[in-house]
Write a structure and sequence with these properties.
By secondary structure, the protein is of the alpha+beta class. The chain contains 12 helices and 13 strands. The longest helix has 26 residues.
Length: about 325
C-alpha cells in the first residue's frame, strides 16, 4: 500500500525569515558597490569590509538553519511528522570550527566540513523516535572533487584559454567586449555540461543514510543517470530556461523511483505520481509570481511547490516473504 508524504508549511511562517535573509544578502553586496564607487559611504572604513561580510554570511547560514528546521518539521507521512532536534548554538559552534579549519588548510578541509554539516543535520532528523545517520566519508568526497570537478574544469579552461586568447579578445589594441562576452557565455554553457558527472557523484554521495537497520541510497547507473541529467539540461538551455521546471520535475522523479530502503526484513521503494503538463504549469506559475513580486512571493511558492511535490511522493513497503521468527520492522507506522 502506498503511503504519501505531506508538506504542511505555510508561506506566512517562512516569510519573516525570508525578509531577514534578503536584507542580509543585499547588505553583503555593499562592499562590492563601495569598491566600484557605486556608493561611497563616508563613515565606513574599507578595512572593516571583509569581517563585515564574514559576519553577514554567518548570520545568513544561521537563518538557513531555521529554514531547514521549519521545512523538516512540516514533512509528514501517515499522520506522523519528522522531528528536528538540533541546537542552533551547536550549529554555530560547528560552523565556526569548520570555517577556521577550512581557512587554515587553504580549503583542503572542505570535503570533511561538508561531511560534518551533512552528518549534523541528518543525525538531528528523527521519525518515530529513531534518527537517521549519514554514512559518507570526507576522503571519498575529496576524490570526487579532484577527479570529477577540479581536473575536468582545469582541462577545459586550459583548452579554451589556449585557443581563444590573443587576437580574439583584441581589436586595434582594445578589448573586444562583444567577442569576450560571447566566449564567456559559451564557456559557462560548456562548464554546465562538464560538471554533470560531478553533480551526480556529489548528490549520490550525499544520499547515503541508515535508519534503524535500513540502508537508504540510490540504485542508479552512472552513465544512464548522467545521460538523463544531460538531456534535461540540454532541453533547458535550448528553450532559454522555459523548460527548467519540467527538467527539475523529471529529474526528481528519476531519482525518487531509484531510491531504496533495504534491510533483511523487507524493503521500501519510492515513487512520484507526475502529471507532466499540469505540474509543469503549476510550478511555472509559482516561478513567475516570484519574479513579478521581486521575490516577496518566494516563501509561498516554495511551500506550494513543496506541497505539490511531496504530496505526490510515496513510500511502498515490500515485505520479504521468507519465513522469519521476528516480525518485519515497520518504518512508517
Amino acid at each position: 500500500m502506498k503511503s504519501y508524504f505531506k508538506f504542511n508549511l505555510q508561506g506566512g511562517a517562512l516569510f519573516p525569515i525570508w525578509l531577514c535573509y534578503l536584507a542580509f544578502i543585499l547588505s553583503s553586496y555593499l562592499p562590492i558597490l563601495y569598491q566600484f564607487k557605486i556608493i561611497s559611504p563616508p563613515d565606513i572604513d574599507p578595512g572593516w569590509m571583509f569581517p563585515i561580510v564574514i559576519v553577514v554570511w554567518f548570520i545568513i547560514l544561521v537563518l538557513l538553519f531555521y529554514v531547514t528546521k521549519l521545512i523538516i518539521e512540516n514533512v509528514e507521512i501517515k499522520g506522523t511528522t519528522f522531528q528536528f532536534d538540533a541546537s542552533v548554538l551547536r550549529f554555530m559552534g560547528l560552523l565556526f570550527v569548520n570555517i577556521i579549519l577550512m581557512m587554515v588548510t587553504l580549503l583542503i578541509y572542505t570535503p570533511w566540513a561538508i561531511r560534518n554539516f551533512h552528518r549534523f543535520f541528518t543525525s538531528s532528523i528523527s521519525y518515530n523516535g529513531s534518527s537517521f545517520n549519514f554514512m559518507g566519508r570526507g576522503s571519498y568526497l575529496l576524490l570526487i572533487f579532484i577527479l570529477a570537478l577540479i581536473v575536468p574544469v582545469f582541462i577545459v579552461t586550459s583548452v579554451i584559454t589556449y585557443f581563444f586568447t590573443g587576437d580574439v579578445f583584441f581589436t586595434a589594441g582594445k578589448v573586444n567586449i562583444e567577442q569576450f562576452n560571447k566566449i564567456g557565455y559559451s564557456y559557462q554553457i560548456i562548464m554546465a555540461f562538464v560538471v554533470i558527472p560531478y553533480s551526480y557523484l556529489f548528490y549520490n554521495w550525499l544520499f547515503n543514510f541508515t535508519y534503524k537497520n535500513y540502508f537508504i541510497n540510490w540504485e542508479t547507473d552512472f552513465w544512464l543517470a548522467c545521460g538523463n541529467i544531460f538531456k534535461e539540461l540540454f532541453l533547458s538551455i535550448i528553450t532559454l530556461g522555459i523548460y527548467i521546471p519540467m527538467a527539475l520535475l523529471n529529474l526528481y522523479k528519476y531519482f525518487v523511483v531509484r531510491t531504496v530502503m533495504q534491510s533483511g526484513e523487507g524493503n521500501y521503494s519510492f515513487g512520484f505520481d507526475l502529471e507532466a503538463k499540469k505540474d509543469y504549469i503549476f510550478v511555472l506559475k509559482q516561478v513567475l509570481l516570484s519574479i513579478v513580486t521581486l521575490g516577496f512571493y518566494y516563501p509561498w511558492a516554495i511551500c506550494k511547490v513543496g506541497a505539490l511535490v511531496l504530496g505526490k511522493t510515496y513510500a511502498l513497503h515490500e515485505i520479504d516473504e521468507t519465513p522469519k521468527i521476528e516480525e518485519p520492522i515497520e518504518l512508517f507506522n
